[in-house]
Amino acid sequence: MVTWELTQACELACDHCRADATPDRDPNELDTEEGIALFEGIADFGERTPIVVLSGGDPLERPDLYDLIEGAREAGITPAVTPATTPNLEDGTLERLADAGVSRIAVSLDGASAESHDAFRGESGTFETAIRAAKRARELGLSIQVNTTVTADTVAELPEIADLVADLGAVMWEVFFLVPVGRGIELAQLEPERAGAVAGWLYRQNEMRPYRIITVEAPFYRRVANELRGEDAAVGTTGAGNGFVFVSATGEVYPSGFMPLSAGNVREEPLVSIYRESDLMQRLRDRSSFTGPCGECPAVETCGGSRSRAYAATGDPTESDPLCPWAATEHEYEYEYEFEFEVAGESKPGALESL
């Protein structure tokens, strides 16, 4: 998977923003011609062309967005787009994206109500915009994905968000376990035991829901799933520099958007070469280089820990993931994977019906 951060410009000021997004675009962003060259370089990965996600900031802040989408398609790539839930995300925009031939639209839901989601996003109306955009996208025949960031403050809303994802007809729920970078450094993470329990709950949801659930920066999800299933479980989770690469607005190539450690720049070297040959990327894929509990873990090949969180916590991407339930202790970690969600107050009204 290749995620290209088209711009860091965005009208929102979300609490968790890894990019510290600002209202203004960086004049050093990759221009249209460089962006199209990037797509052509992505096509050079070989027979199995990577999934490409156009992200931000807010990609709708790029006036050449539709030219870039056309260039991607001419290179044989059908990109997905993750627009911010600002007033720019109106019906006409969604219709243009559908006509342009994007593969999927992702919207963010970090709360199950307007009150909680808008507070997290720092802007009133973002919940309603996300719901309406997802419903309109579905009417247009666009595939829908919902992204959710899990923190100690948002975790209790996961069951209701899971219901919303189903009601919206989404095909995927991508659950991000907070990495304390950017503005997210001020937010409270889950405790390791609770993170493991949430991973177990997500796996059970994955088995019963009509959509797929994948995690971001929580590779222990795979180990938890394997233990619950008693064998290898086919679950999705991203790995920094290992099947995933992030291109910044200015062309810097990072193993992950949550690890601002550059392996090179696409203005100077092809993305394929940076991903396959740079010392940083190779070190992240060499799990024998990991240290601490992650390096000693019998599940290092299955899991490998979040390299981004290890880097955020220690400055060393080969150190241990401090959120891992096993790495947090000196012994084999055993606990019940059930997770009781405590939701304060009365039951919230159905969000879809109220909009």
From TrEMBL:
Cofactor(s) needed by this chain: [4Fe-4S] cluster
Annotated ranges, domain Radical SAM core: 1-217
Pfam families noted in UniProt: Radical_SAM, SPASM
Keywords noted in UniProt: 4Fe-4S, Iron, Iron-sulfur, Metal-binding, S-adenosyl-L-methionine
One MF term in the entry's GO annotations: metal ion binding
Coiled-coil residues: none
Database matches in InterPro entries: 4Fe4S-binding_SPASM_dom (IPR023885), Aldolase_TIM (IPR013785), Elp3/MiaA/NifB-like_rSAM (IPR006638), PqqE-like (IPR017200), Radical_SAM_PqqE_MftC-like (IPR050377), rSAM (IPR007197), rSAM_sf (IPR058240)
Source organism superkingdom: Archaea
Keyword match Metal-binding: yes
Protein's name in the database: Radical SAM domain protein
Lineage: Archaea, Methanobacteriati, Methanobacteriota, Stenosarchaea group, Halobacteria
